[in-house]
Amino acid sequence: MHTIVVIDDDESNNRLLQTVLKDYQVLAARNAEEGISLIRQVLPSLILMDIRMPGMGGMAAIQLIRNDPELAHTPIIAVTATSPSEDVRDAIASGCDGYVAKPFKPTELRALVHDFLG
After folding, report:
1. What is the rounded CA–CA span in Å between residue 94 and residue 32?
2. Strand 76-80 versus strand 46-50 pairing type
3. Residue 12 CB: number of other CB atoms within 10 A?
4. pTM
5. Residue 9, domain CATH
């Protein structure tokens, strides 16, 4: 079973993503620091990263992940409350492999995850 790490400061978003992606093992972190630690422990198949979080933001976390040889290959999907905008362009430029705008349709999110994980 594939493992997905969700990094989002909103606990309700974490629970929603765990419910929507119930066919996968989904582990959640409430901030970037906790998420990076979790990613290093479990080496997930996919990361869902909120971009705007207090403390270390998603962009900084993405750069840390992309600079870590053990994690650099892990696909990252930005999960953002903004529509295709500067945040999304910056996320893709920073190393995200895709994005999902909040609020998202569960079927669309599942399809995107399936595209990455097969």
Report:
1. 15
2. parallel
3. 8
4. 0.92
5. 3.40.50.2300
pLDDT at 16 over 80: yes
73: tokens are: 């290959």
Spatial separation of the C-alpha atoms in residues 113 and 118, rounded to whole Å: 8
**Whole-number Å distance between alpha carbons of 24 and 20:** 9
Q: How many domains does the chain have?
A: 1
Cα dihedral 109, 36, 34, 37 sign: positive
* Domain of residue 90, residue span: 3-117
Q: Is the pLDDT of residue 84 over 70?
A: no
> Any idea what DSSP says for residue 88?
H
Single-letter amino acid, residue 13: N
Q: Model confidence at 114, in pLDDT bands (50, 70, 90)?
A: very high
DSSP class of residue 23 equals T
The token duo for 19 is: 């419910």
